[in-house]
Design goal:
- By secondary structure, this protein is mainly alpha-helical.
């Protein structure tokens, strides 16, 4: 086992490679960075606190043990959450069926509705933004967190959450509609900054 001083801004890929080299400090840094996100992912799917705690622990144990198998074709967070998903399935033995969406609703969602950055004024603090996101319905809030705050691709989010990509887009579009007026009211913004690009 190795311990060393780790810069908290160290790139995730570098951290996971250090974990693979059995660096406990790198593992601790990665844990501190993503523990809340992993816990939320599990809690949305397992209501029993004891079972959720067990899955949470097994997820991080799996991260430590499997770190040498990480491939750089996905983000580190996506990889960790995929471990959590496997642990959840093992605990529940039956995967949750994907959300059913109305096709007409999905067809009405275009990419120009989905830019999160334009929604958030740079003068607003991340704390305020997180508070507004956390107030959304749970699955929507988690989807938005993965997409906007962790910048995971929609395809990876859909795979992790066992839903179609269209469902991810729908949740983000709905969140954007809900949050736009809330965030606009919090800080002075020129109207054109909140207009969807066409």
């Amino acid at each position: 086992m190795k311990r060393s001083r780790i810069d908290p801004d160290t790139d995730d890929i570098r951290l996971i490679k250090m974990v693979a080299d059995e660096n406990e400090s790198a593992f601790e840094t990665l844990y501190n960075k993503y523990a809340h996100t992993v816990q939320a992912f599990i809690s949305l799917r397992i209501s029993d606190d004891e079972d959720a705690s067990e899955v949470f622990a097994d997820t991080w144990l799996g991260c430590w043990r499997s770190s040498k198998t990480f491939r750089t074709d996905s983000k580190v967070l996506t990889w960790i959450l995929s471990i959590a998903r496997r642990q959840i399935y093992m605990k529940r033995r039956k995967p949750k069926p994907p959300d059913q969406m109305d096709q007409m609703e999905l067809d009405s969602i275009t990419d120009d509705q989905l830019e999160p950055v334009e929604l958030v004024n740079k003068d607003l603090t991340m704390e305020i933004i997180r508070q507004r996101i956390d107030a959304l319905p749970a699955e929507m809030a988690y989807t938005v967190t993965l997409a906007w705050l962790h910048e995971l691709p929609y395809t990876e989010i859909a795979s992790l959450l066992d839903v179609p990509v269209g469902t991810v887009k729908s949740r983000i579009a709905r969140a954007r509609q809900i949050l736009r007026p809330q965030l606009t009211d919090l800080a002075p913004v020129k109207p054109h900054k909140l207009q969807s690009q066409r």
